[in-house]
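Readers outside the structure-tokenisation community will struggle with the description of the input data as it stands. Showing the layout once, in full, would remove most of the difficulty. For illustration, here is how one protein appears when written out as sequence plus structure tokens:
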Amino acid sequence: MKKNKPKKMEIDCYQCEDQSKCCRFGAWIDLEEAKKILSDPKRTEFNLVLIPEAMSILESERALHTLKEYGISVNNIIVNQMVPENPSCKFCSERRSHQQERLKEIQQKFNGVKIKKLEAFKEEVNGVDALKKVAGILYIKS
């Protein structure tokens, strides 16, 4: 039995309290046009971000498979929250060792996709300056 897919989707603006006064109220997006944009590598780049733990790897595998089904390619796998090397910290060393094993698994499972590593920050990445720092690490220095 063939399912009927909706051709258009209403967009809600979650920033406005009164939807009737929102500039995007009642706006519609053509789903076919959205698919064209998302699957066009000249217009859209997808990066999967995961942490080096089993559940995150599994979820990212599923996401990669689903994106491929829709003709959307993934440019990079970003392995986030990597523990930096610190031989004087036993916990850090053990955690890093575990992450290195998971990193090998990630490299095998996502063979053919560029893998970028991002060390854990002392504080949550929040705000434009912090995002610029992350972009510099991932895209300018690599």
